[in-house]
Amino acid sequence: MTAVRALVLNCTLKRSPATSSSQVLGQEVLDALADQGVDGEIVRVVDHDVRFGVSVDEGAGDGWPAIRAKLLAAQILIIATPIWLGQPSSVTKMVLERLDAELSETDDQGRLRTYGKVGGVAVVGNEDGAHHTIAEVQQALNEVGFTCPAAGATYWVGEALHKTDYVDARPKPDTTGRTTAALALNSAHLARLLAEQPYPPPGTRDAATAPARPR
């Protein structure tokens, strides 16, 4: 079985050791991926001095290059974000802006280095906006080269204007558990498929549609 590694980026606004619902759901995604034979880790982005910008390295002290190295070593990237004002967190948007630099980074065959990597989303909040947040993040991940699987997101939202967060939700909702399991299963499956059959280099003809060579 093809080895697959995952990276979960927790895009909470809270520095460690503050409790984070995004951390809880991100860990649940990682646990579900482990059930599929996928190893991985969570990085809380605000614990690192990630600079604003759209390059792979914003200079001395920038925390993004170390995170990017983990990303490049992984086959699955999960963005875990809270909802603020119905949108992904500002940290999530900063991460997506840093990923924009990958549009200029290619392998020795001219493919984006993100090609062949799977992108998923985990969202928490105590207000509406989960579908909108998922749509924004998935579109951005796809635009910079990630492939999004079927059922490629999981989320939990509490009742609007109430104080219950996902860390306090008991018992854990079965619906979130099912979507987390589906996200993990489909992400692991897709990552292995792409490892075994990578995207073709730009300018070539896909092998499935190329005419058979004469024998």
From TrEMBL:
Residues 204-215 have a biased composition (Low complexity). Residues 194-215 are annotated as: Disordered. Pfam families: FMN_red. The lineage of its organism: Bacteria, Bacillati, Actinomycetota, Actinomycetes, Micromonosporales. InterPro entries: Flavoprotein-like_sf, FMN_Rdtase-like_dom. Residues 6-151 form the NADPH-dependent FMN reductase-like domain. This is NADPH-dependent oxidoreductase. It comes from the Bacteria.
